[in-house]
Amino acid sequence: MANLEADHVVGSHVALGLVERLAGAVATDPGVARLVDSRTIYVVPRLNPDGVDRLLAGKPRADLRANLAAIDRDRDGKPNEDGPDDIDGDGLATIMRVKDAKATLVPDAKDARLLRKADPAKGERAVYSEMTEGIDNDGDGLINEDPPGGVDLNRNWPHNWTEYNPETGVAPASEPEVNALIRFAFAHPEIAAIWSFGLNDNLRAEAKGVAAADAPYFAELTKGFARATGPAGSDAPKDQPKDEPVKAADPPKDEPKADAPPPDRARVAQPKGQRGAMKGQAKGQGGGPGGPAAPPGAAPASVAASGIEGTTDGALSEWAYHQFGAVGLASRLWPAPEPAAGGPPLAGDGEARWLDWNDKAAGGAAFVPFHAVDHPTLGKVEVGGWKPGVRLNPPAESIAAIADGHYAFLKDLAGRLPTLAIKEAKAEARGGGVFEIKATVENAGYLPTALAQGLTTRRAAPVLVKLDLGDAKLLAGKALDRVESLPGSGGSREFRWLVLAPATKPLAIEASCPRAGTARREIPLR
Question: How much is the pTM?
Answer without folding.
Answer: 0.83
